[in-house]
Each structure stands twice: as C-alpha cells, then as structure tokens.
Amino acid sequence: MIPTSTVSRPVEIGLRLTGIWPNSSIFFRLLWSIVMGTGLIFQYRYLLTHFSIEELPNLIDGLSTTLPYTLLFFKLIILWINNRIFNDILRTMSNDWYEYSSIYTMIDKANLSHRYSKLVIGVYSTAVLLYSIATIDFRKPINDDCRQLLIKMELPFVFCESPIYEFVACVQFVHLMVVASTIGMLDALIVTLMMHIGGQIDIMQQQIREICPKDNEYDLSITIVRSLIKKHHKIIAFSDNIESLFSSIALMQFVSNTMIICCIGFLVATSLGTNEGVRMLIKTAFFYIAIVLEAFIFCFSGEYLSNKSRTIGDATYESLWYALKPRDSRILLFVIMRSQTRLTITAGKFMDLSLEGFTSSLKASASYISVLYAMY
C-alpha cells in the first residue's frame, strides 16, 4: 500500500488522543492533565516519604519511573503551548505531499518513517510488559508485608490486601502502557519529521543535478532559480520550526535520560550476586534499551539533519554551474553559501544534538553510577 503521508497511523492516533493534533478536543488535554498530575503527586509523595540513604535502592527505583513520567508531562505541555508551530509543520508536510506525492523519494521516506514508528512504540510496549511481569506480585502478603506496586506511589488508602491490590496493579499496568506508548509516539514523531525533511533535501538535490544547458542556451531559467530558492527557504523554515518545537524538550530529554540511565545502572549493579539479580535484569533490560534508544533518537536526529543540510551545498557544487553564464552561476553560489550554515537541533540553545553528545551522556551516566555505588 502506497503511503499518503509521512506521519504513520499510530502516530496520528496518538497525537489526536493527546490533544496535539490540530482541532483536537480540549477534553483530551484536560484528561491528561488531571490523570498525570494526580499520578505525579502520589509518586513524588512516595519519594519524599522514603528519602533516606538506608532506602537508596528503593528510592532510585522509584525515581527511575518518576522521571520519564515527569518528562512526558512537560513534553505534552510544551507541545500544547506551541500548537501553532506544530500546525505549521503539519501544513508544510501536507503541501509537500500534494506537490511531490508521486516522487519515489517521498514514498521511500514515508515507508521508513512508518517502520521506525512501529519499532519505537513496540520497544516501549515490550519494556512495560517485561517490567510489569517482574514487578507485580500476586502472591498473598506474608507477615503483614505490603506488596510492591508497579508504579511506586504513596496512595491515600491501604492497597496491600486482595482484591484492592490486584485492582490497583491492573489500573497501573494499563496506565503505564498508555504512558509508554505515548512516549514512543513522541519519539517516533521526531523520526517522522527527520525523514520528511530528509526527503525534501533529496528532492532539492535531484533538482539541482538536473540543471544543465539545453540547445546550447546557457541561460538559467528564472523559473528554475525561483523554484530552487523557494525550496531551500522552505527546508530552512521547516528546520527552524522543528528547532523551536523540540529545543526545550531536547534539553530536558538530555538531562533526564542521563539520570535515568544512571538509576537503572545502579539498580543492576547493586542487585548482581543477590536473589533479586535475575528478576532485576528482566525488569530493567528492555527499560534500559528503551531509554538509551530515546536518547539516541534525539541525538541522531540532530546529527542526521546537520549532515543532510551540508549535502545541498555539495550537490550545488557538483552541478554544471561552470556551463552557465557568470550572472547565473553567482545565483548558485548564494545557495552554496547559505547551505554552509548547517541546520541542526539544539538542546535548549546550549549545545547541538549529535552522536558525540550521545556518547557524552552515556559517559556521564557511568560516572554517576560509580558515585552512587560508593555512597551505597
């Protein structure tokens, strides 16, 4: 089946249910705000109640699930506030599909986007499933010990006994699955945007390569010039909109992922050689993969956009500019000069997202693990 949009169906459904899609009902925003706000209150209440060095592993375990939850809430708020920018992005994508829907590059990028979207959402769903299997305890409590919840919360009622525990655990499982799918959907969204802008750059490169004199006429058609400059301007404007939408999100993502990777690594390191070792590995393995994948997606997106934007200048230089009149070749020179200012995504305007930043995040996480382990 030939796709009609770079945005896959699961991503579109997720954007509609979170109130981000244009003309979505405000009911979804209110619902998410109430549910997530209430959940965060109980989660942070648990962290404050158990804040002590003696309960460090338990505290770190709760923090590792609270941070992604908090980050998602802030992501949604930022996307709701910048809804106008997101509408401009979707409008640009729709216009591009109307103009270039028959070009193979667009179809190929859309297919890649759909596959990656399903993969990312699937990884998060699998992580939640394995985490839940290793966490939920349906056995009867022994010696009045309270069984562990899927999401560590300080609830205002007693939940240790059956069937209240089973009911709360099932509600938390459904809730956590929805939250994880939403996190995966937002990660798939930035992949979708990168695939689309990559396809537009490929189309512009193809148009540049087709510049050549015909019938011994060395004049560059004003129509071609206008088309190239307009196309380049649209790519730059599209990239600026992505930067405006995801810059603050990327900064929070960078800090949060470093802390979460540190927390998961600490839990694994302290559980090895104990009775909880295998259970903890099952609980955190896919969770760790999902968090690292999330950090990699953002950093790779910035690297991909930077490298892809440079290829516009290379394609222009490799065209038959030398066969044109000096007046026309100078026009292409402006395209080369503008493409030297690379497009990128920054983390809060402080640093460019790149694979180097990804490795730095992993190194910082490993350093923090050693500090926590020494404290423990």
Describe the sheet with the most strands. 2 strands, antiparallel
| β-strand number | 2
Average of per-residue pLDDT values: 83
- Work out the helicity level: over 70%
Number of separate helices: 10
Low-confidence stretches: none
Record the strand order, biggest sheet. 1-2
**What's the shape?**
elongated
Rg calculated over all Cα atoms:
25 Å
Helix/sheet category:
mainly alpha
Listing every helix as H and every strand as E from the N terminus to the C terminus, the arrangement reads HHHHHHHHHEEH
Strand residue content: under 5%
What count of structural domains?
1
Question: What keywords describe this structure?
Answer:
2 strands; 376 residues; single chain; mainly alpha; two-stranded antiparallel ribbon; elongated
Short summary:
This protein is mainly α.
If you had to describe this structure to a student in words, what would you say it looks like?
There is one protein chain. The protein is mainly α and 376 residues long. It is 75% helix and 1% strand. The protein has one domain. Helix 4 crosses helix 7 and helix 7 runs antiparallel to helix 8. Strands 1-2 form a two-stranded antiparallel ribbon. It is built from ten helices and two strands. The longest helix has 50 residues. The model has no long low-confidence stretch (mean pLDDT 83).
